[in-house]
Design goal:
single chain; alpha+beta; PmbA/TldD fold; 23 strands
Length: about 500
Amino acid sequence: MRSLETAFGATAQRGVDIAIGLGATYADARVLDMAGERCSVRDGEVEGMSQSTSIGIGLRVIADGCWGFAATRDLDATSVESTARLALQVARSGALLGPAPPRLAPVDPTIASWSNPIVEDPFGVALEEKIALLVAATLTMRAVAGVAVAEASLAAWRRHSLLVTSEGSRIEQRIVQCGGGIEATAVGESEAQNRSYPNSFGGDYGTEGFELIRRLDLVGNAERVGREAVMLLHAPPCPGGVTTLVLDGSQVALQVHESIGHPIELDRVLGMEAAYAGTSFLTPGDVGKLRYGSPHLHVVADSTTPGALGTFGFDDEGVAATCTPIVSEGVLTGMLTSRESAGEIGMTRSGATVRAQSWAHLPMIRMTNVSLLPGSAGSLDELLDGVDDGIYMETNRSWSIDDRRVDFQFGTEWAQEIKGGRLGRVVRNATYAGRTLPFWASLDAVGGPDLWRAWGLPNCGKGQPPQVGYVAHGAAPARFRNVQVGTP
């Protein structure tokens, strides 16, 4: 693969130099060469196939105490110079509104390159092989009596970037990501039931090569997925009441995403951002003081987690990937920060969380791998032990949470009663509800390292104009006491 430094380093530097020469106090240029591929199959037939490539440059500047941003897909010197001038105009137009000048937390100038390790390039695997895998998975699900629709999909992305800053950083990165999943739909007289693997809403994804998809064994899990979808049609409704709740790792991951990941984004906390996920119930003064949950709650934002979807070498501000404690023994200890938001509250370093969907998008704070650390329960049976009466829930079906990330309700595809410390009958349409702080305060136990894994979410929306972020959440099954399940 060609070097972006060799091909476009001088052009990117020229854009930065133009901006500084015209009065910017800071400037960066980010060249991004992207490729994507997605294929989907429904009932043994190819439903969709897309391949895309895109390359361009985005320039950020600070001028007259205000940010400006502009981007272009034309990488010739003239276009890049014009784009730099446009970014200056945007900044100076914004400065007329009189915002306080941004204070950037310092970062050491870095010259580096980084790429994630892969065993098998997903773009090197023949399309025919990928489609054959998906066809086989859907036909296996459809062979189960009662399955009406069977779907399967795979996706892969390649991101090759070069960041040049006025502070002297020059960073080139190559990141390869992929994943996929399957879903069976069974239709009865009055309702339909879905069952997914390895997760709902497209499956599971990571910063890995095609070895991830082979490890998922979609075909090997297809028959079970089909059977469970049909089983749900005949299951009784989930009973309502306040009880002990045990969640599988994938549902814990989404719970972390919605009720911890979004509220700790410091731009939301400071009122700089509200689109899509709303604001936050937190304040900067809560750090080090607020009890977020029980002593079993340990959360980190770790962009160094091997293979996780939110892993990288450097963020889009040139800050090296790091692990930031977010909640320690139940107490809030950190937030997701940019150089600007960190500087705003007097921090000496950004948490390396700033990323953009493409060269045409303005970088902003995004979750990395916001993970619940493993506990001590060595197996699911240990989490069930001692639960005389409760509910086990698995695989998200629906979610709802208010703009400040306080009141929530989640539904899952699969649930089973817990009786006498053992899983019992399957129940359908299971839901649970609560408030963020009391819910995490009810955390009673967390599965250990053997049960922990990072779950990738490639569809986290944020910003206006909107952009999608690739994030992950490490989690293991966990137990919560006195939770409202079903209908009150």
